[in-house]
Structure prediction request, 319 residues.
Amino acid sequence: MRILRIPPLGTRPGHRQLPDAGSPVSLSRRDCLALLAGSALLPSTASAQERFSLFVGSPQFTVDRMVKMAQLRDDDVVVDLGSGDGRIVLSALKANPKVRGWGVDINPTLVAEATANAKAQGLADRAEFFHRNVFDADISKVTVIMMWLFPELMRLLRPKLLAEARPGTRVVSNGFEMPGWEPDFTDTDGGRVLVWIVPARVQGFWNWELPVTGGAQRYEAMFEQRIQMAEGICRVGNRRGVFTEVRLRGEDLSFAMDITLDKVGLTRQEFSGKVRGDRIDGSVRVLFRDDPDLKAVTYPWQAERARTTAFFRPTGLDK
Ligand SMILES: C[S@@+](CC[C@H](N)C(=O)[O-])C[C@H]1O[C@@H](n2cnc3c(N)ncnc32)[C@H](O)[C@@H]1O
Prediction:
């Protein structure tokens, strides 16, 4: 095991460049634990409730890859949770002159340094840095979340990210994984940058109507969800079907269902839409498998979240 030197008590955080996960040598779990143990020994400032990760600045080539993987758009708001000297936020702002950003760090000295760096680099009008615990950061209005934090801290942050960040928010990490949440993209081009897309919440009951069989036919669906992995089932009249090829990325949801319906026989129904709170808006393409002469039809699809479902109701009671 490599020995990592913990800065002497009371000194300003150094600018040592530990190998990041993109370098040939990456921090092992034992290294992480050593750092965690060391950091716990540091004196806390008045407002520091915890200090899980020491300051080590991400190497610029990793910062550049993180910014690239974030695929910045003009209206993006970028936050770095544990912003150190501000390099990630400032690099993002330089990459796109319309993007705004801010950072939080538990170490006030680093917050002052990041603020000075923003000023020196002419970015103070678009960048702000706050002395704050990552758990107290308001991430409800950001679109990109950057971080280089230990997996243990990321694990603790996971519920906050999923509950408070808007669906579609890109979460970008230098090297470290988020335990229990598979990344949507991994850049292994000489190292590792991981990207997660915060998924919309689809868990629960949803209802909609479609005129596939002529008149309006009610669909009673139920989704089960674990982070971005979703499964679904549905009742249409007295038939029940399973959703296949379910894909949830941010607010984009798509799935298919093969189901036999009265009057039209076997159908394949391909749904795609955007989940926004308690509504899904999109379209469904219906293919009629039992009648090759019938052309596929596309209908608008509008689903609403429901508190109860008829999915479990015994069949045969209604026509
Ligand atoms: C490994 S450094 C990364 C700095 C910067 N994001 C970068 O990649 O260059 C981790 C930073 O997180 C900060 N930090 C650790 N625990 C924190 C917490 N609970 N709240 C806010 N900041 C924290 C540390 O002070 C440190 O600056």
In short: Residues 50-53, 55-58, 80, 82-84, 87-88, 104-107, 110, 133-134, 148-149, 174 surround S-adenosylmethionine (CB under 6 Å). The chain has five helices and 15 strands.
